[in-house]
Design goal:
- The complex is a heterodimer of chains A (about 300) and B (about 375).
- Chain A is an all-alpha fold and about 300 residues long.
- Chain A has helices spanning about 1-35, 55-65, 70-80, 80-115, 120-125, 135-145, 150-155, 170-195, 200-205, 210-225, 225-240, 245-250, 255-265, 270-304, and strands spanning about 40, 50.
- Chain A has a two-stranded antiparallel ribbon.
- Chain B has two domains: about 15-240, 3-Layer(aba) Sandwich (Rossmann fold); about 250-360, RNA polymerase II/Efflux pump adaptor protein, barrel-sandwich hybrid domain (OB fold (Dihydrolipoamide Acetyltransferase, E2P), Beta Barrel).
- In chain B, the strands form four sheets. In chain B, strands 6-7-8-3-9-10 form a six-stranded mixed sheet, with helices on both faces.
- Chain B is elongated, with a radius of gyration of 25 Å.
- Classes of the chains: A mainly alpha (about 300), B alpha+beta (about 375).
- Chains A and B meet through helix 9 and helix 10 of A and strand 6 of B.
Chain lengths: ~300, ~375
Amino acid sequence: MNRPQKTHWRARAVLLLPSLWLLLFFLVPFVIVVKISVSQTVLAQPPYAPVLDLAAGWRGVEVFFAQLTAEGYRLIVTDPIYLLSYFKSLQVAAISTAILLLIGYPIAYGIARAPRSLQPLLVMLVVLPFWTSFLIRVYAWINILQRDGLLNDLLLGLGLVRGRPEWLSSDAAIYVGVVYSYLPFMVLPLYATLEKMDEALLEAAADLGCPRWKTFWLVTLPLSLPGVAAGVLLCFIPIVGEFVIPDLLGGSRTLMIGQTLWTEFFANRDWPVASAIAVALLALLVVPIVVYQRLQTRQLEDLR
Amino acid sequence: MADGGGRAVGEKPPLVRFQSVSKRFGELAAVSALTLDIMPNEFFALLGPSGCGKTTLLRMLAGFEQPSDGRILLDDKDISAVPPHRRPVNMMFQSYALFPHLTVEGNIGFGLRQEDVSRRERAERVAEMLALTRLQGFEKRKVGQLSGGQRQRVALARSLIKRPRVLLLDEPLAALDKKLRAETQFELMQLQRKLGTSFVIVTHDQEEAMIVADRIALMNEGRLVQVGPPADIYERPTSRWVADFVGQVTLLEGRLQPGGLLTTAVGQLRVPDGESATAKVWLALRPEKLSLSAERPPSNGGNAIAGTVFEIGYRGDVSVYKVRLSDRSLMKVAVTNSKGRRPFVVNDLVWISWAADAGVLLRQ
């Protein structure tokens, strides 16, 4: 009778470490951010109030809760600048994810169909950019896209443009930067699912009368949907919160939510509003994550 | 014996003809100048050890591999250049290759979806296949929720629904346990008789090939070794390799003498008369054609040699005795266990006897 309980306890112990990690580095900071988001802005150190005063006992707790306010949240839903930033972020994330999928799928498919011996090298080439700092690579795009940069040199050389058009500081520059930076995150999960696919399934489809292109639509694509979902979420979620790329490559008129948050936090020193933005962003992103989890559970059930 | 072999079944023209077909993968010759005819309405088995080229031959017929040389004719038309999706041939894969994202129904109907078949006819033919393979009630299941035997039947139904001219079966029963495999072998034979389609099965299991097939092509190292009905191959093998690969055999090396005598290391043996030539030959003896006795049996124009029991392999219905002969070689003798107790034990002195025409003389 003793042993099953023991294993039960051990199984729990295994979960303890990740749980502790999440508690310490995610849940506790998140509670602090939520708390700040319902505080008031003050000119002080720290720049918000109230601060919980446990020395004052129960009275202190009452005062603390009385001072909480939803002002930050009211501001971000009433002032259009915040809503526009959210919208812009979702738009940039959605469009770039679509472009990433269109570019990434053929690349992943090509690698998965390449000779086995070549595949590690090709995967390596996809990951290679990570060997250089992300920041340096984005700066390199400034060099390429600026008025006297490489792109205009090339276009002029080919006689495709007259004069030197401005590429930098535009939405197009943001898309170029985002798609370039996130491509590996789209290619790798797609490659992982496509590479696992049984060659015999494609032969079976051909045997039953499917030309190649039709086999792709009827067999390859549906079976790679888990990879598509993983790639899309792996790109979409961080792009929504992207700060560096729009800040360096985008124009001053385009504000993504990451930049707005940065401004509130560092320029305006309005911690409560900045925190409210962060909490709202998280709530927004929880939706696709939950959808993905559901899909994954269903996938597992199908396999059983 | 590398010619097409046995134009045996009826007078109808062959359905499939391999005409000096070769297939090379780089340096490796998987199939070498192979010529073979497969008849309409025939259950044909390609048998051989792994790597003998039998699967390559099947895949060339399906269209997944292109012959390096030679032609493949189906209904007298060269199909070498026809892509797999246009060939009137369907294959049942060893791994079954069922589509995991589709239901049983979706898998079985997949082939008809690629054709100009009305929704109603498709539903009817899927229902027909479900009945044929006893899968009614499983239509809406995903294939991941089926047992091994059920998957095997889905794969079979899926490959039959387009009514192919030839059904190719690549080790179709390899994944089943022994009992289910034996049942399925008989089901396959019934199905083939009912449908009248030619079945070509690839297998490395000689027993399976002999049970299901009308004719067997025995392959080794990319070449045909012997082609013919199972009984021909078993009773009249043309080489030591065939005799040894199909069933159990004891081979006695010797030289022929005039008058139907063979000189061997264990003495002079009587063999069918009329065999000439004095070159080296081998006498192939099947274990079930031999008898064991404690006393020397009366000669009656047959053979009898003495030995001691070395080892007994008990199989329930039959025991296989390995008997050590005077030259220290071992001879296998099968004895039916009709009495329920073993007549001999290890180290017993025994006599092995057989009729003069019980064995086969082999020259290679």
